[in-house]
Amino acid sequence: MPRDRAIFTLVNDMGGKLDLVSAEANEVEQLRQRVAQLEAELAQKNEELAQITKSKKSEQDAEAKLAQSQLELALAAQDGQRQVIQALNDQLARQLDELSTIHREINSALHT
Predict the structure, then answer these.
(1) CA-to-CA distance for 97 and 53, rounded, in angstroms?
(2) How far apart (Å, rounded) are the C-alpha atoms in residues 82 and 89?
(3) What is the pLDDT of residue 21?
(4) Is the pTM for the entire model greater than 0.90?
(5) Dihedral of CA 60/62/67/72: which sign?
(6) Where does the record place a coiled coil (predicted)?
(7) Residues 50-84: pLDDT tens digits?
(8) Which DSSP string corresponds to 72-84?
(9) What does the alpha-carbon distance between residue 63 and residue 60 come to, in Å, rounded to a whole number?
C-alpha cells in the first residue's frame, strides 16, 4: 500500500507538472498570437503611413505647381506692365524734347 501511495503521489506530482507545462504552452501560444496580431497592426499602420505620405507629397506637388503657375503669371503681368511703362517713358521723353525745342525757339525769338 505505501508503494501504491507513492505511485499515486508521483502521478499526481507529474499531473500537476503537466498541467503547469500545458498552461505555459497555452500562454506561449497566446503570446505568439498577440505578436502576430501586433505585427499585422504594424504592417497596416505602415501602409496607412505610406498612403498618407504619398497623399501629402501629391498635395505638396500640386501646391508647388500652382505656386509656379501663379509666379509665371505674375512675371508675365510684370513684364507687360514694364513694357507699358517703357512706352509711356519713351512718349514722355519725346514730348520733353518737343517742349525743349519749343522753349529754345521761344527763347531765341525773344532775344532777337
Answers:
(1) 65
(2) 10
(3) 61
(4) no
(5) positive
(6) 21-105
(7) 999 999 999 999 999 999 999 999 999 999 999 99
(8) HHHHHHHHHHHHH
(9) 5
